[in-house]
């Protein structure tokens, strides 16, 4: 039987806290999948309608997301190059990541996006060493039948699991939550791909003005709002240092 640290990699260093986070639109200022859809696919209006259908009409996220990505036919290598040119990092994330490494708070990236995009953007934005220290759990990319991913209309998303999300982020968090003794767990997100993770950790950070805030208010899920990672950095440091509790930090949109 695997030891907890083998099956739960974030426990390897016996941390006091674990920081789970979405990638697109949370660590980055732009969502890479939204950027591709808006600029290379069927555009902003249809994408927003898809998000509304998930948020208000119960449409599976996986279906709306697949439709978005199917509208992007440019070869994968060209998409990646354009993303590296256009997607920017939250300016405060790098300092937060450095603090996390110094204070033994593992960062686990849980993403509805694709592994090669996330790894390339993280290495480009925070550096190879910092990026390599982060565990990434996400979907992947695969070639369509008879094609290479770098052909026109040659790539497709390869989902992490069979859930309606494509990647049910709660599946990664719950084994940690079930431990009799465990670290404090945080999660940061912004959108509809984060709905499965919203209720799973001790403290949820939801990005101001985004769909995750709407969901939390609708479903009465405790959260605290953030504008950028400097807000998160202060609260996480205060909780880890014992200055405030997670309950005191869950202030909603105040």
From TrEMBL:
Transmembrane segments: none annotated. It comes from the Eukaryota. Keywords: Hydrolase. GO terms for molecular function: phosphatase activity. The keyword Ubl conjugation does not apply. This is Phosphoserine phosphatase.
